[in-house]
Amino acid sequence: MKRDNQSSVSEFLLLGLSMWKEKQGIYYTLFLGMYLTTVLGNLLIILLIRLDSRLHTPMYFFLSHLAFTDISFSSVTAPKMLINMQTQSQSISYAGCISQLYFFLFLGDLDSFLLTSMAYDRYVAICHPLHYTTIMNPNLCFLLVIVSWVLSCASALLHTLLLTRLSFHGDNTLSHFFCDLSALLKLSSSDTTVNELVILTVGVVVITLPFICILVSYGCIGATILRVPSTKGICKALSTCGSHLSVVSLYYGAIIGLYFFPSSHNSNDKDVIVAILYTLVTPMLNPFIYSLRNRDMKGALGHLFSRGLFSSC
Fold first, then answer.
1. How far is 283 from 104, CA to CA, in rounded Å?
2. Per-residue three-class SS string for 67-103
3. Model pTM score
4. For residue 120, what are the CA distances in angstroms to 127, 216, 223?
5. Which tens digit of pLDDT belongs to each residue from 199-213?
6. Which residue among 123, 132, 170, 214 has the highest number of C-beta atoms inside a 10 angstrom radius?
7. Radius of gyration of the chain from Cα atoms?
8. What angle do CA 191, 193, 197 make, to 5 degrees?
9. Which helix (H) or strand (E) holds 14?
10. Which residues pair with 92 in a beta bridge?
11. What are the backbone angles phi and psi of residue 12, rounded to the nearest 5°?
12. Do the Cβ atoms of 284 and 39 come closer than 8 Å?
């Protein structure tokens, strides 16, 4: 009853992109394939890390959590989008919208913190190799993950609670395929000054600071690599962080393109396309990046297949 007193809107309409209606069958098949690839690919990473004892290291510990987060992140938005496309329905309930927003923010922030933890792991491995096992001990790894979860949960909860205080009257259409925070604020008939201030403040903590930490880590890594006299040493150092750097570029590249370079025309369509990039495309590409660019993952995958072939004979 309290929510009804604050808001006259009982549901929202998710419009997505106008071009989806023209060839909906093709887009449905495309998005379904991307989502299934994301789930199966990241599940494979978790399985490989779980089964291969050679991958029981801090870097792959963080990678397994990142893979689980990517599965969950895509699952927050993709199933609802696919159901709406299949049933020709565009509606989502108020409670469903608020829940989707919370988990979207929570898992998106968690991705950022996990990528930062992985960057710190690579920094210690390359810049302080003799002290790696001492610094990156299991207690620190668990602590980094727990802190990532707590900060992400707090950030998402703060945004969600502030949003529930707003009133929504009249227009309930969102030019998006999920309940995006900025799109919801535009629909609100209440004063959103506090919400926008919190977005800027918390955004510094969950996005900007982690990104700066990653840049500093790789700056130190680059300086260390330049001091390595042998080409073999440089190649080995680059191979250990190439996969992670590729994922970081995809993740933060999409965020920078969306929030730091707004377009003057068709901004809604651009926002939707970029959102698809970091909710579906990036999580889908992560398993391929870590499988194709990482020697240990390829070795574990080959070992799994060979063991499966021998056991079937």
1. 13
2. HHHHHHHHHHHHHHHHHHHHHCCCEEEHHHHHHHHHH
3. 0.87
4. 10, 9, 15
5. 889 988 898 899 999
6. 214
7. 21
8. 155
9. strand 11-14
10. 12
11. -120, 155
12. no
Alpha helices for the chain (secondary structure H) = 2-6, 24-51, 58-87, 94-127, 132-135, 138-164, 181-187, 193-203, 209-226, 231-259, 267-276, 282-292, 295-312
- Interval 60-88: pLDDT, tens: 999 999 999 999 999 999 999 999 888 88
What is the per-residue pLDDT for 4?
A: 43
**CA–CA separation, 60 vs 238, rounded Å?**
17
Beta bridge partners, 91, equal 13
Is residue 35 packed enough to be buried (19+ CB in 10 Å), middle (13-18) or exposed (0-12)?
Answer: buried
Q: What tokens were used for 140?
A: 């620190």
| pLDDT above 60 for 263 | no
Weakest-pLDDT range from 98-112, 179-193, 219-233:
219-233
Is the pLDDT at 197 greater than 90? The verdict is yes
Concatenating the DSSP letter of every residue in 148-178 gives HHHHHHHHHHHHHHHHHTS---S--EESSSS
pLDDT digits (tens, 9 = 90+) for 110-145: 999 999 999 999 999 888 988 999 999 999 999 999
Burial class (CB in 10 A: 0-12, 13-18, 19+), 177: buried
Given a contact cutoff of 8 angstroms between Cβ atoms, the answer to whether 295 and 239 are in contact is yes
Mean pLDDT of 11-21: 78
Pair of tokens at residue 58: 């801090």
190, 166 in Cβ contact below 8 A?
yes
For residue 16, is pLDDT > 50? yes
Separation of alpha carbons 120 and 112, rounded Å: 13
CB 45 within 8 A of CB 67: yes
Q: Apex CA 111: angle with CA 273 and CA 158, to 5°? A: 90
Which two structure tokens, joined as six digits, stand for 231? Answer: 């080409």
